[in-house]
Design a protein that fits this description.
Radius of gyration: 29 Å
Structural class: alpha+beta
Largest sheet: 6 strands, antiparallel
């Protein structure tokens, strides 16, 4: 049996997790882990707090406490929040554990033995007032790549560039505020460059499985060329470099933190009483499949840095899948702690402590996962998703069925009358037929419906077809990490169940045809169980409640060694509830969220508009804007780019001069539609290579949250080359 290892990016223990973090890594990872466990797969879901590094010491200094106080505060708060949100880690560990120190030091010494570390003195910023070397986050300056004046010592958050700190322009110490000097200090540098070719081969071997954003970031880094990188830092808070001449040196978090996945697994194995069992998951094997969930800001650490570390150790499994997500915004704006704009998990849990409310949050986030682009969370959408979808569709079907069973059948799953006694066997035959061939829903209906009309009327055939095809489609979506689509397909099955209840009209047949009514409610009771399992990866609390109402197995994909090998997902296709089995009194799964509740939440957030809340450093001066030359251009020829679903190659004329522009509009505009159009382009961009072709500018277009795209066009005809301003 395959072993499915799942990691979610280690949250940094200097702040509380917010809903953006949940959408980026933890809810999608949990959905996937629960789905796999429901399929009976051997699954291990690992995470923990990242607790070393400069940001911890900065937070400690700001609050006047020790680094240990900081990590304890946030680790336990976040661990509790994850548990209440239903994130089903097999272990949530922390990098301050002694086992992590041992593991990180063992890796460091192994690198040294293999000649992968080179010791040398190099320049580093030194604060002469504070009398200390400045770790990366203790220094700020102007980014050498984009010019942002808020860049920190190792990375610019504005453009995402990584660099050595002494490349910063106009550096200033965050300790004293003074300009640091450069002094020599000794460090050990990891030879990342020796793995350039190997990591390129590895990354390209995954190109068919990784999303565009993952491949683009990875290729961009590799295109720049890997260089030796310091694997140590001058710092008191971290894993000490395990060498006699390394006082005051710690292993750099770039290389140490990701090892928290392995150390956490070792601790998990020890807790199971099988200390060596961690090897079953991390050692290279055809049976081991490793998936790393994370946000887009962590991509290169999981496609380049960590894989190199694992390659250097020779026999470790590499990430097969890296389903990185983009960012989740709040009410149309980026999360901002300073502007009180956003939602922390702990605050949500305080105001919405009920399990069904937590499920409604999980559902709303899952429905808006930023899988291909940044997405948005809004309180109004949270209300709509709860009231109009969970309550009105899934919850409504469960409640209608339960109410009807208790009103007319004594709370029991109906005993099928003699004329329908063979229905369970007929159900199995129908399922076998629908599964036999990879036909579409309509083709299968045309081929098989008449065969099964002896036992099923058209409405029954339709709902069981929706169940079979929906289950198949949902599984495909989970396996390809299209989790938002998996949820949509799940809700579609619930809608089909509601339609079946309406069309069957048991409130009529209970009087006119009691046998048919019993048959209808037998089918509905089985569908309640099926839907509860299908929704379990997203709404585990409510699914368990629905299953308990049926007095059946209420497992929803949490860690359980006994679950391996038991395929509950496949069981949703079968009528497993026994005739005459008693059900519990019905309960409302999802209560309504009132307008007043939404207004109360909105009142807690910052009240300024998006335009008013742009920070000073985000504003552009008019001179900056004038650097961008927007011009009208006439499209004189257009064609599709081979092997690309998105790109059109355009030949445009700007003020009498021709140039080539590649535009990702092929899904919305044909070459014939584009030829002859007047468009707006950014005309003074550096040429870029796409699919091996040079693009000499950028076409302007608008896109919405659903991915729809429209060109920026002119109200009346203008000559090519006209300035747009």
């Amino acid at each position: 049996m395959k072993r499915r290892l799942i990691t979610a990016a280690l949250p940094y223990a200097n702040g509380f997790i917010h809903l953006g973090h949940c959408a980026g890594a933890y809810i999608p990872a949990d959905m996937y882990a629960r789905f796999l466990r429901l399929n009976g797969e051997q699954t291990l879901f690992v995470c923990g707090s990242d607790e070393y590094g400069v940001a911890i010491t900065i937070s400690a200094e700001a609050e006047g406490v020790t680094p240990r106080d900081i990590i304890d505060k946030y680790h336990f708060a976040n661990s509790e929040a994850f548990a209440r949100l239903g994130i089903s880690f097999d272990i949530y560990s922390r990098t301050s554990e002694p086992e992590h120190t041992r593991a990180a030091q063992e890796f460091f010494l192994d690198w040294l033995r293999k000649g992968l570390l080179v010791e040398r003195e190099e320049g580093q910023f030194y604060d002469e007032v504070a009398k200390m070397f400045l770790p990366d986050r203790y220094v700020e300056g102007v980014c050498p790549n984009c010019g942002s004046d808020k860049a920190r010592g190792d990375q610019c958050e504005n453009c995402g560039a990584y660099y050595n700190q002494i490349e910063l322009k106009n550096p200033r110490s965050k300790v004293s505020g003074q300009t640091p000097v450069i002094r020599k200090t000794k460090h050990w540098y990891f030879k990342l460059n020796e793995f350039q070719e190997a990591i390129e081969v590895y990354a390209e071997s995954r190109a068919a499985y990784w999303k565009d954003n993952v491949m683009q970031q990875t290729r961009s880094w590799l295109k720049q060329g890997l260089a030796e990188r310091a694997a140590s830092r001058d710092l008191s808070w971290g894993v000490p470099v395990p060498l006699p001449d390394a006082d005051g040196k710690v292993i750099y978090v770039w290389f140490e933190a990701v090892l928290g996945y392995i150390s956490a697994t070792k601790i998990w194995a020890q807790n199971q009483g099988t200390p060596e069992a961690w090897r079953d998951w991390w050692k290279k094997s055809d049976d081991n499949i490793y998936t790393a969930f994370l946000g887009k800001d962590n991509i290169v650490f999981h496609t380049i840095i960590f894989p190199i570390i694992l390659m250097a150790a020779d026999d470790y499994v590499l990430p097969a899948y890296v389903p990185a997500n983009e960012f989740l915004n709040f009410e149309g704006q980026k999360f901002s702690k300073s502007r009180n704009w956003g939602v922390y998990a702990r605050d949500f849990l305080q105001d919405f402590p009920e399990p069904a409310q937590i499920d409604a949050l999980r559902y709303t986030i899952a429905a808006n996962l930023p899988e291909t682009r940044d997405s948005d969370f809004s309180w109004k959408d949270f209300q709509v998703k709860n009231n109009n979808e969970l309550a009105a569709v899934f919850g409504n079907f469960v409640n209608r069925t339960a109410q009807f069973l208790h009103k007319y059948f004594g709370g029991a799953v109906p005993v099928l009358p003699e004329r329908f006694a063979k229905l369970p066997e007929a159900w199995e035959l129908l399922t076998d037929d629908l599964k036999r061939e990879p036909l579409g829903r309509e083709e299968s209906r045309a081929k098989y419906e008449s065969k099964h009309l002896r036992y099923f009327n058209p409405d029954e055939f339709a709902v069981l077809s929706a169940l079979e095809f929906g289950t198949r489609r949902i599984a495909e979506c989970y396996h390809s990490f299209r989790l938002r689509e998996a949820l949509l397909e799940t809700m579609n099955v619930a809608r089909a169940a509601n339609k079946f209840f309406n069309d069957a009209a048991p409130w009529k047949t209970v009087k006119t045809d009691p046998d048919q009514c019993a048959k209808t409610l037998y089918v509905c009771a089985q569908l309640v169980r099926s839907l509860a399992v299908m929704f379990a990866p997203v709404t585990p609390n409510s699914s368990a409640e629905a299953l308990r109402m049926l007095n059946t197995d209420s497992y929803t994909g949490e860690p359980d060694a006994k679950a391996a090998g038991v395929n509950r997902w496949n069981d949703v296709l079968h009528p497993l509830l026994a005739q005459g089995a008693m059900t519990a009194p019905p309960k409302i799964l999802f209560g309504k969220i009132e307008d007043a509740t939404v207004e109360k939440q909105l009142s807690k957030m910052g009240t300024a508009t998006a335009a008013e809340t742009v920070t000073e450093e985000e504003l552009l001066g008019i001179d900056d804007f004038r650097k961008i030359q927007l011009r009208t251009a006439k499209v004189i020829a257009a064609e599709r780019v081979p092997k690309s679903e998105k790109l059109l190659k355009l030949r445009v004329e700007i003020a009498g001069k021709e140039r080539q522009i590649l535009a990702g509009i092929a899904k919305f505009y044909t070459p014939e539609e584009m030829t002859g159009k007047t468009v707006v382009v950014a005309a003074n961009l550096k040429p870029a290579k796409l699919m091996g072709l040079e693009s000499q500018g950028m076409l302007l277009a608008a896109n919405d949250d659903e991915g729809n795209l429209a060109l920026v066009t002119l109200e009346r005809e203008m000559p090519s080359g006209a300035e747009v301003r």
